[in-house]
Amino acid sequence: MGKSKLKKKLKQEGESAEKSTSTKVPIENLPQKFLWMHVKSGTKIRNVLDYALKEFPNYNSIVWTGIGQGIAKAISCAELFKRKHESLHQVTKLCYMEPENPKEDITTETHQIPEVHILLTKYIKDTTELG
Questions:
Q1: Residue 25 lies in a domain
Q2: Tell me: the pLDDT tens digits for 67-115?
Q3: How far apart (Å, rounded) are the C-alpha atoms in residues 131 and 122?
Q4: Cβ neighbours of residue 76 under 8 Å, at least 6 residues apart?
Q5: GO biological process: what's one of them (predicted)?
Q6: Relative to the CA of 4, which of 78, 107, 108, 127 has its CA 20 to 30 Å away?
Q7: Is the residue at 27 inside a domain?
Q8: What domain range includes position 76?
Q9: CB contact at 8 A, 18 and 35
Q10: What is the rounded distance in angstroms from the CA atom of residue 96 to the CA atom of residue 67?
C-alpha cells in the first residue's frame, strides 16, 4: 500500500475514531472528548499505534475497543501505548454482544461475541469505578 493510500486510510480511521458516541462504550463517567480506536483482527498495530500516539495530546483520553478476534490486538495496543505514556489511569470492561448477521444454522443457541473496552486517561474522574 502506497503512502498516499495509507494516509487516506488513517484519515478515515481518525474520522471514525473522533466520533465519540459514548452509548456504545460501557464505561461510566467517560470524558467528553476522547479518542476511540477500533481494533480488528486484520488491523496493523503499527498503523493504529502511530496514529494514536500522534493524536493523544489533543484528547488526553483514549478508548481501545476490540471485538472477537481483535481483542488480543486491542490489549497489545493498549499495553504498548502505556509504555509510551506512563502514569495513565486504566479502566477495562469486558462485555458480550449479539452478532449483526447471525448464521442460520445457529437458531437454537445464542451466540455471543466478546468485546473489550480499555480506557486510558491522564485525569481520573472516579476512583470507585471497577475495572
A1: no
A2: 999 999 999 999 999 999 998 999 999 999 887 776 666 555 678 999 9
A3: 16
A4: 45
A5: tRNA 5'-leader removal
A6: 78
A7: no
A8: 3-19+32-121
A9: yes
A10: 9
